[in-house]
């Protein structure tokens, strides 16, 4: 079968190029195929991988425009393989994820110093068990269309991680975390759902963003575009303020 | 013990299966979701209804870089923790769950001491002999001739290790592998990376790792040959008993002027 790989090396003169590889594959993963190409035909083909079992998240890339983990995707004839989007390509299928990963810090998506130490019941653990399983593969980040217009958007995985901590029973005061995600955060998401089907562990970042919006609403924040459209924002009871009626 | 029996059965009948069907779907999904996913993905088998084909594999490396009670290595300012380090906590057989425990305990400790060291010392990156050797190696790589494919040798080494230096070991097999490894060490200059790029060169990284691998392989083999007893995961079919008199000790290996030295350190226990 034939597999096409979009290859790019900054030092090469002709930019990115699609290269076709004739391979023998039968029920093989994309990572197995890429490894075979690298170790048997072309040692310059560059990609990242580590655990080979869908756990570490380092081999995320796109096949026919959709984000996959190379180690869990079974290759088909005619597949086109490309690097993740919304990140600078370093070489071939390797992208620079530093900018993306920095959003976790910007979103304060980590345990607070003020968090209390106490036992967590199995039920309480369930609340954010799924969100805790994020492997930071950045598939959702690559699928998100917001980056076309806003490169400062905190993005799906950082917001999922924010919800993971906001919903943690040990976090006694989440006001700082909620304040941090108002700008370039939860309200910039278009709720388009693109991030949901590509997550290899079944996380739905969009859902978590909706949860953060609800939480923000309860804490007195509102959608800035809404308040801009309606002039005065919301009243204290949450109903839109249409300004003083003119009699 | 279990691994040895699985291996024996594999050699006899060609297949060994794990049956977890009695646990039921609800329990498997609750407690073993990843195992179910992996079996479905890589073996096309659903453990809720089918048997899982199994084979022993390494999932931890006992021993490691020698560290003191502050997680510092023999090189001051260099700290090691986790699987790569030897904190003298596991002995010859790490028990389940203890690796993640060690990562948390000694990771915390090493981080703290390393931060303190960095605060107290101006220049924390002194060029040393090893650094110079590594630098020379990288510089020298461009003269390596690339007549021998190191990926092929990597696969070869995996095979001979799995068959002779893994689950069941004996003197003759270990010595044969040692001879092969020493041969590979000699052949290294005839291998090399094919990719000459300076940008994200994974071919070069993999070659360097292969070089490290053949260096460490010698240490593993010489240790296994010297330890004429069986203990924990180290099983010698030609010396199946434990010999506390001679070997109730950690094996410590180091290099002097490039020559591998080995000793048994009873005090380390
Ligand atoms: C399949 C499997 C199941 C396991 N299950 C369990 C279990 O249930 N319980 C348990 O306690 N233990 C388990 N273990 C063991 C445990 O997972 C490991 O011992 C532990 O994760 C090791 O952690 P570490 O941080 O020491 O090393 P690693 O997690 O291996 O981290 C080393 C890091 O160094 C990076 N690295 C390597 N070279 C370089 C370089 N040159 N420059 C920069 N970075 C580099 C690597 O990319 C990697 O991220 C299991 C292991 C395996 C393989
Ligand atoms: S739902 Fe929101 S975060 Fe997810 S891809 Fe769409 S815009 Fe991005
Ligand atoms: S949320 Fe899912 S897709 Fe996004 S980084 Fe985490 S694991 Fe990957």
Describe this structure in words.
The complex is a heterodimer of chains A (247) and B (269). Chain A folds into two domains: 2-95, Beta-grasp domain (Ubiquitin-like (UB roll), Roll), CATH 3.10.20.30; 98-229, Orthogonal Bundle (Fumarate Reductase Iron-sulfur Protein, Chain B, domain 2). In chain A, the strands form two sheets. Chain A has a five-stranded mixed sheet with strand order 2-1-5-3-4. Chain A has helices at residues 30-41, 98-106, 122-126, 129-132, 139-143, 156-166, 175-180, 205-218, 224-229; strands at residues 2-7, 17-22, 60-63, 66-69, 79-82, 88-91, 94-96. Residues 231-247 of chain A have low confidence and may be disordered. In chain A, a hairpin with a 2-residue loop joins strand 3 (60-63) and strand 4 (66-69). Chain A is 29% helix and 13% strand. With 247 residues, chain A is of the alpha+beta class. Chain B is mainly alpha-helical and 269 residues long. Chain B has three domains: 2-53, Flavocytochrome C3, Chain A, domain 1, CATH 3.90.700; 65-120, no CATH class; 132-266, Up-down Bundle (Methane Monooxygenase Hydroxylase, Chain G, domain 1). Chain B is built from nine helices and six strands, in the order H-E-H-H-E-E-E-H-H-H-H-H-H-E-E. In chain B, helix 2 (25-31) packs across helix 3 (33-43), helix 6 runs antiparallel to helix 7 (171-187) and helix 7 (171-187) runs antiparallel to helix 8. The mean pLDDT of chain B is 92. The complex binds flavin-adenine dinucleotide and iron/sulfur cluster (2 copies). Flavin-adenine dinucleotide binds next to helix 4 of chain B.
């Amino acid at each position: 079968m034939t597999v096409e790989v979009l290859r790019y090396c900054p030092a090469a003169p002709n930019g990115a190029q699609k290269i076709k590889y004739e391979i023998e594959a039968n029920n093989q993963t994309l990572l197995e195929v890429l490894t075979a190409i690298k170790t048997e035909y072309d040692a310059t083909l560059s990609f990242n991988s580590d655990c080979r079992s869908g756990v570490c998240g380092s081999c995320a890339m796109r096949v026919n425009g959709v984000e996959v983990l190379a180690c869990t995707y079974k290759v088909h004839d005619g597949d086109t393989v490309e690097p993740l989007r919304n990140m600078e390509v370093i070489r071939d299928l390797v992208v620079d994820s530093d900018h993306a990963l920095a959003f976790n810090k910007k979103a304060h998506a980590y345990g607070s110093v003020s968090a209390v130490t106490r036992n967590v019941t199995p039920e309480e653990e369930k609340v954010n068990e799924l969100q805790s399983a994020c492997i930071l593969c950045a598939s959702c980040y690559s699928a998100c269309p917001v980056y076309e217009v806003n490169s400062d958007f905190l993005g799906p995985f950082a917001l999922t991680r924010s919800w993971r901590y906001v919903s943690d029973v040990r976090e006694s005061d989440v006001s700082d975390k909620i304040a941090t995600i108002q700008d370039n955060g939860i309200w910039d998401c278009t709720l388009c759902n693109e991030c949901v089907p590509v997550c290899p562990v079944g996380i739905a970042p969009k859902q978590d963003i909706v949860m953060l919006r609800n939480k923000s609403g309860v804490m007195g924040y509102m959608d800035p575009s809404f308040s801009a459209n309606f002039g005065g924002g919301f009243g204290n009871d949450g109903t839109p303020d249409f300004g003083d009626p003119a009699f | 013990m279990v691994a040895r029996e699985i291996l024996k059965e594999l050699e006899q009948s060609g297949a060994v299966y794990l049956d977890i069907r009695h646990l039921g779907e609800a329990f498997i999904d609750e407690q073993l979701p990843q195992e179910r996913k992996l079996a479905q993905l890589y073996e096309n088998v659903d453990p809720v209804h089918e048997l899982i084909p199994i084979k022993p594999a390494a999932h931890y490396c006992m021993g490691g870089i020698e560290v003191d009670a502050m997680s510092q290595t023999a090189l001051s300012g260099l700290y090691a923790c986790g699987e790569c380090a030897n904190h003298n906590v596991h002995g010859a057989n790490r028990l389940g769950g203890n690796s993640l425990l060690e990562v948390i305990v000694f990771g915390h400790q090493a981080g703290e001491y390393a931060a303190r060291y960095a605060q107290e010392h101006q220049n924390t990156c002194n060029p040393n002999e090893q650094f110079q050797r590594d630098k020379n190696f990288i510089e020298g790589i461009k003269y390596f001739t690339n007549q021998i494919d190191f990926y092929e040798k990597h696969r070869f080494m995996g095979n001979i290790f799995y068959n002779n230096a893994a689950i069941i070991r004996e003197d003759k097999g270990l010595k044969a592998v040692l001879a092969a490894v020493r041969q590979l060490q000699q052949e290294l200059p005839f291998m090399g990376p094919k990719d000459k790029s300076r940008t994200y060169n994974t071919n070069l990284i993999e070659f360097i790792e292969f070089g490290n691998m053949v260096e460490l392989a010698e240490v593993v083999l010489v240790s296994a040959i010297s330890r004429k007893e069986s203990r924990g995961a180290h099983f010698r079919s030609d010396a199946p008993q434990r010999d506390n008199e001679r070997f109730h000790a950690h094996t410590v290996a180091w290099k002097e002027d490039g020559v591998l030295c080995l000793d048994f350190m009873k005090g380390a226990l």
